[in-house]
Design goal:
It is a single chain. The chain is mainly alpha-helical. The protein has one domain: Globin-like (Orthogonal Bundle), CATH 1.10.490. About 60% of the residues lie in helices and about 0% in strands. It is built from ten helices and no strands. Helix 6 crosses helix 10 (about 165-190). The protein is globular. The model has no long low-confidence stretch (mean pLDDT about 95). The structure holds protoporphyrin IX containing FE. Protoporphyrin IX containing FE binds near residues 8, 65, 93, 94 and 138. The site of protoporphyrin IX containing FE has 26 residues, from helix 5, helix 6, helix 7, helix 8 and helix 10.
Length: about 200
């Protein structure tokens, strides 16, 4: 469903700088969200279930953002005009991210791209990838609050593969952990020394 490669999605770019977050810090966070082998397996299954539904998931998430002026503002010009090209290009990367959250090993390269995603929500890198004339920064409070809709709205898509309730629940819990983990990582450039 997405062009290969996705424009601006630099996960495997050899020039990607390493994350300031250490593998030991990642280990700690994985333990804090109780992420284990069963979650890895559940996410792999979630990837299979979601792979044919990415556009529909993105329709729901973009519908949610579009319905809230305080969110769509971050895809808009400083004057408040939504930027269609920016929304579209980020949408493709968001789709790839869903699959990577399910299928990628959470190794040092993945960690490096987590840092890149964090920077793209903040002053140092927002707008650069798409040369967008948008506002320069997304407040951390919105990133944290977004964990809920990103988690709640995925459940019907996880259930659509016909798996039993226990498996759907395992996929949903693993997804919730993976999103919480990533937002904890993304808070690093926001928090600086307090991280
Ligand atoms: C970019 C996920 C919260 C606005 C992205 C990307 C992903 C993502 C995967 C693309 C990264 C890439 O370039 O490869 C998430 C998740 C969130 C979250 C999982 C919270 C759980 C938010 C919130 C907003 C927002 C609350 C505000 C409306 C944006 C914008 C970009 C972006 C404007 C493009 C940044 C750029 O200029 O490159 N997000 N996001 N995100 N997100 Fe978020």
């Amino acid at each position: 469903t997405f062009p290969e490669p996705v424009p601006g999605y630099t996960h495997d770019d050899p020039g990607l700088p390493p994350s300031p977050v250490t593998p030991a810090e990642l280990e700690g966070l994985l333990a804090s969200v109780l992420f284990g082998l069963a979650d890895q397996e559940a996410l792999r299954l979630a990837g299979d279930v979601l792979s044919g539904q990415i556009e529909q998931v993105l329709d729901v998430w973009y519908g949610f953002v579009g319905a809230h002026p305080h969110l769509v503002a971050y895809f808009s010009t400083p004057q408040g005009e939504p930027i269609g090209d920016y929304l579209g290009r980020v949408r493709a990367r968001f789709g790839r991210w869903i699959m990577d959250t399910c299928r990628r090993p959470y190794d040092e390269r993945w960690l490096a791209y987590q840092h890149e995603i964090a920077l793209r929500h903040t002053e140092p890198k927002k707008n650069q990838t798409d040369h967008a004339d948008s506002v320069p920064h997304i407040p951390l409070r919105h990133i944290i609050a977004f964990i809920y809709p990103i988690t709640a709205t995925i459940r019907p898509f996880l259930a659509a593969g016909g798996h039993d309730a226990e498996q759907v629940d395992a996929m949903h819990q693993a997804w919730f952990k993976a999103v919480t983990l990533q937002v904890a990582l993304w808070s690093q450039p926001y928090a600086g020394k307090a991280w």
